[in-house]
């Protein structure tokens, strides 16, 4: 499989590849010094290599001219949400109401929300419960190496070995006991992943229907939460990062913390019970643009982790 397609893509309002790919919304992108400053992903069975040229220009290589039915530049613009006007992400009043937060956000406006494959998003966030990002990446990599397809790509004067993420059918066939080796020996998590993979493979979870933007967000969340191992937060992550629902606002400990410190939320002082989760979700929509609450929320999340918590592992 050879790299034969190259595109230089210019953006109107800029993009920061590193902040975008390593902000906790995807755990599938690889970076290795052998890639010569490129980041690598297998989309379906198509390898993609990407690197930052300037703040508003990226270079992309691929083995295919089309990915997911879109020509390469259209796919990249869609995948990185380059069609979203960043001026609309935060309401106009935000910078005046929260000047200190606005100043901290200055280096994060070029973070883009990825439109990822919904099944891959579901699986990776089911792996992500209650653990750090380094361990999440390790689990996701083990899933790909164990159950995905090995792909050899000549690139940068050598051969790069990549792995596609397993399909629903491939994971449905996996022995849950062996699958737990990829989930840090968490058998309950492995069993839930197996059940979800079966549901997708058998059509009981139909992402082609769930991606309908007309579905009210509470209904979408409730449908996803019918599956063991998926609560409100994971459902909102699937909606935001896998179904293009930029109104979905995932809330974890970091989000609860910044809602309390930056926006004086008294509810943020309490644990994330289902009732408090929904109350915080409603509260966030009074602060942010409701249609893009999740988009803005992830910028705030990454900014909080880096600027306040001083975390560097992504």
Topology:
Blueprint lengths: L4 E6 L6 H5 L8 E2 L7 E5 L2 E9 L2 E6 L3 E2 L2 E2 H8 L14 H4 L1 H6 L13 H9 L6 H15 L2 E6 L2 E6 L4 H5 L3 H4 L7 H15 L5 H4 L6 H8 L7 H11 L10 H11 L10 H14 L5 H16 L6
Antiparallel strand pairs: 1-5, 2-3, 3-4, 4-5, 6-7, 8-9
Helix pairs in contact: 5-12, 11-12
Structure characterization notes:
There is one protein chain. The protein has 314 residues and is of the alpha+beta class. The chain has one domain (5-242): Endonuclease III, domain 1, CATH 1.10.340. It has 15 helices and nine strands. The chain has helices at 17-21, 72-79, 94-97, 99-104, 118-126, 133-147, 168-172, 176-179, 187-201, 207-210, 217-224, 232-242, 253-263, 274-287, 293-308, and strands at residues 5-10, 30-31, 39-43, 46-54, 57-62, 66-67, 70-71, 150-155, 158-163. Helix 11 (217-224) packs across helix 12. It is globular and about 55 Å long. The two termini are 30 Å apart.
